[in-house]
Amino acid sequence: MSRSPFDHEPAIAAATEIPPGRYPEFDALNMYEAVMRAFIGKWPLDPSIVDGLLAAPAGMAVAKTPDIFTHETLADSLGIHPTFSETLNAGGATYGFMAQRAAWAVSNGLAKAVLCIGAGKFPKVGGGGGEAMARMVSHPDFEFIYGSFIPALYALSARRHMHEYGTTREQLASVAVSSRDWALLHPDALMRSKGPITIADVINSRPIAEPFNLLDCSIPCDGGAAFIVARGEIARSITAQPAYLLGAGEYHDHGPVSQARDFTSMGARESARRAFQGAGLKPADVHVAEIYDAFTMNPIMFLEETGLVPAGRGGAFFLEGRGAPGGSLPVNTYGGLLSFGHTGDASGMSMIIEGALQVMGLGGERQIADADIALVHSYGNMMSEHSTLILGRKP
Amino acid sequence: MKPKPLPHVGPFTRPYWDAARESRFMLQRCRRCRQAIYYPRPWCPHCWSTELEWMPACGRGQVITYSVIHEPPSEAFVSEVPYILAVARLEEGPQMMANVLGIEPARMRVGLPVRIVFEERSGGFRVPQFAPAEEST
Fold it and tell me: Domain A11-124+219-392 belongs to what topology?
């Protein structure tokens, strides 16, 4: 039996992501407006119930001057006057931390319904974007000068995992295959139209940074999403089956990745431990896992760190198809950033939206039959800061 | 061709880069807890002492992990590919990122012993790099 650490049964009451893709005519604010229009068009929301608003700096990945007052810009535009609101950034963990802060705000009575929103763009990797992003996540004087490059920084973990546990190239590739199979079931997934892929397709794609080839990398695009965390009784007035926040864990490990204390365990172990402890649940209770997957390495490592799979067995788990449609523990049921799309500074939204939709029973063609408990893991910077959420159907 | 990036030399890193210009590899050490520190900073991350000293380091280490980069992140590295980005544990204790120079990518391995060498960059900069510590034949 679970026991939530929160009072007032905070739950995700509404969750919507706009289709990932390229939005050339949309500037950073327009992306937020596109998300908000889709969100309020979809859910029966009375503006007077929303007294909290969390946003990320609009234009973080592409604009010269990101809007550090996005929360004020949006609140004004929406005509609301929150009692709990800020613009916050923790990279990919931003939205996981929003969910956590919103749940604590609801629990402590600071707000009754908190709108969490993010929209972003992935800069063109070839046009200087790759360099700009490498600069963003590297120590400027002691990493960036060595030609640090995001795929290579993740590859450091993959190589070490291969060394310590014998994880194979094929096992890494099988993560991409699994995600693609899920993407074929999602109407908005960017790679749905490309059809299924094989392990050979991944290994024979263009080499990027060993051991990664092109198909080990997530798909750059634009997009965004919004969700509301509300008190239980408000959540139930918005939707028949909210996704209750049963547990939440936050942990900050290293800064620059060269200073990671263990390249096969980056901090998710601790955020997950805290989340499970708060929820009074254990890894075996989880029915579906949504895990931030910038590269094929991540789901392997984070399934292990969160305790869903024993250390060193993540590669075999995917090679055996256990995370794929029909598998024993569905992972990244929307196609992941690998095949749904990586929406730049909004990418940390996608796994939360999907985890919530699965628990709410709104997964459409890809709905898991028994999605009573979902684990959602996201991280920011170079796997530096971690958010683990545990969502469930019962408060 | 675009030159490779240079570090910002600030008040807390100047001794490191000044020594590097003379091909000397220096590390900070905490006067209180005696631990070696990399990258340079104005305090000890272990005990928060602000009493640090600079010491000549032995310049030897061992590769913890690495990647061979095929796709250059920027114009400055186009002529370098494939090149190696590695993290090594220095004999004094701290971890450090650098490129491994002078080795065939196929010979790279976790555990490779490396030594510090210096790569010349624009403006008289010398950047500490790794090279195989054993003769690579």
Answer: Peroxisomal Thiolase; Chain A, domain 1 (3.40.47)
